[in-house]
């Protein structure tokens, strides 16, 4: 349990909300869960003997509630859905789980009318590119991957760079981009990772939004909390969806967003929460 790192994450989001509240920005935290947190029926039998009184996910939700930050427990959302929920040869959720999670976030944000219809959007399973787990776990090379086909009719323009989001993740695939939807409407900023980068910015077809931005929640692929808060402020979002995946959301070391005031004045040792 990385308690201090989780508490640092909670403090960070709470401070973000305090700074942005005067301009009317709302923050919703939705942590994409690890497969092991959802597919409990697939875990080995010996895990039934383990008794974790609280997990990092639980601790984060409790802390964010105390900070007055809106959250949605995506573990419960996905557990209520049928299998398959995750890819076989990759650590990511599949397209259907992504859509179900998006709808849950829209409800938590107070915009149930922005949800999409999974029956129309999620198609049949089809063969998909295989992931890194195939090689890492030495699976037979003939193992097939399947994913649900997404039937999206884009209402937005193609992604473009925005001068407000000038800082980018170190990985070329995670550049900060925006999609224009309409001349007027709310401004949405998704702060996430590979779980949300491709699909979520395209799902606002039913939403009263003008632009949807996406930025990685870290300057590093495997980090967190070291993004540019200056970019966030320049973008002037009405809604922030913070969706860093479960295994990476705790703040490491002395990581803190650039431009976000620290709520403490003394130096904080590495891996110790304020």
UniProtKB/TrEMBL annotation:
Pathway: Glycan biosynthesis; alginate biosynthesis. This is AlgX/AlgJ SGNH hydrolase-like domain-containing protein. It comes from the Bacteria. The lineage of its organism: Bacteria, Pseudomonadati, Pseudomonadota, Alphaproteobacteria, Hyphomicrobiales. It is found in: Periplasm. InterPro entries: ALGX/ALGJ_SGNH-like. It holds the Pfam family ALGX. Keywords: Alginate biosynthesis, Periplasm, Signal, Transferase. One of its GO terms (molecular function) is transferase activity. Residues 4-148 form the AlgX/AlgJ SGNH hydrolase-like domain. The keyword Transcription does not apply. One of its GO terms (cellular component) is periplasmic space. GO terms for biological process: alginic acid biosynthetic process.
